[in-house]
Design brief:
Two copies of one chain form a homodimer. The first copy, chain A, is of the alpha/beta class. Helix content of chain A is 55%, strand content 12%. Chain A has a five-stranded parallel β-sheet, with helices on both faces. In chain A, helix 1 packs across helix 8 and helix 2 packs antiparallel against helix 3. The two termini of chain A are 25 Å apart. The mean pLDDT of chain A is 89. At the A-B interface, helix 2, helix 3 and helix 5 of A face helix 2, helix 3 and helix 5 of B.
Chain lengths: 219, 219
């Protein structure tokens, strides 16, 4: 079972991914016999190569990185992650939870930056080796909410933040279009609800997919 | 004027690229007024980002790099090189000579590794921003010649060398197919000739394209 979280920055998806992993670990510990562990992966990173690519991506402002360069570095990192970590884990029957995956590239670089969708699709397919998530949880928030949360966090504007409102409107719209096109894979969850409520909906969606009841991951 | 050299490993293309650059530099020094310099670029490398990507590629055996990862890292390096170095140089009227460019990806990853050509084409187009060489010199040698030269050089087998004969046969065939499809851009030069003879043909082809006579670059 391969589960991904997607959404705008500040949607709370990373928090939700962490909570789900905690919840799944409780489930697997209480199972008899104990189930195999849950593997939690944050893009980028996780393999020696993706860690090295990550250090380049973190420097991208200083290095005056072109958009196409960025896209290919994300794809390189993902290609390695899939083959070295995700595929072997799935083969062992492990549940893999990923904070962002190929849909992020479609949303941000395709819908957001306007790179032809057919091109993005082919790059994603090559990077993932055709692997698709069984379940994608799209934590959706309106732009106003993203703005408020970004301001509350006092985030230093980085390259992405400088992209402007229209860019994020296209990204959000892209995510919603993708979710509508693949209702079997996507669950859209309202990210403006309190964390515990969002977590309940995440557990319900994952529990249904795994045909089990998942305890809360909240402390 | 954007000139690229392509060919199998040990075809002598790097030697020929260096000789051409020397020859062009003599031409530009003797011009009145002196012409702008010639820019010589070796893929990968040349920008801070591509140098960092290069160090990852050099380690690829130790890092157990997947083929797709390798392809995307080459694309990332090329994307940056085009935007940060090649395009600005061409805009200034500089002659740019590149030892390998996008055709290498088509030949090695497309024809050689069997990645769908349409996918490789789209990746190349995104990486190069649509920039195509004005002239591509394909230094062609048969596989037997490559074998002999590799053995003479006592090269330690690396990942590429371990790919086997059939792989290189597909790469060479790919190059020749591309050259036949774009006769206006490609010049196929017999790389089994002595270095000086190959250089003469390179100078003749570049001289015709630049509508000038190019002195020899041999010492």
């Amino acid at each position: 079972m391969f589960i991904t979280f997607e959404g705008l920055d500040f949607s709370g998806k990373s928090t939700q991914a962490t909570l789900l992993v905690d919840a799944l670990n409780r489930t697997s510990r209480s199972a008899s016999p104990p189930a195999s562990h849950v593997h939690f992966i944050r893009e980028t990173g996780g393999t020696p190569i993706s860690e090295r690519v990550r250090t380049i991506l973190l420097d991208r402002q200083a290095l005056e990185m072109a958009e196409a360069t960025e896209l290919f570095l994300f794809a390189a990192s993902r290609a390695q992650l899939v083959r070295q970590l995700i595929m072997p884990a799935l083969t062992l029957g492990t549940v893999v939870v990923c904070d962002r995956f190929a849909d992020s590239t479609t949303a941000y670089q395709g819908y957001g930056r306007g790179i032809e969708l057919e091109t993005v699709e082919r790059i994603n397919n090559l990077a993932t080796g055709g692997l698709r998530p069984d379940l994608t949880l799209l934590i959706d928030i309106p732009l106003e909410e993203m703005d408020l949360r970004a301001r509350a966090a006092g985030t230093v504007e980085d390259r992405m933040e400088r992209s402007g409102r229209a860019f994020y409107a296209r990204v959000r719209n892209g995510y919603l279009t993708m979710a509508a096109a693949e209702p079997g894979r996507f669950r859209v969850i309202d990210g403006t609800m309190p964390v515990a409520r969002v977590h309940d909906e995440v557990r319900a969606a994952v529990g249904a997919a795994l045909a089990t009841t998942i305890p809360s991951g909240l402390p």
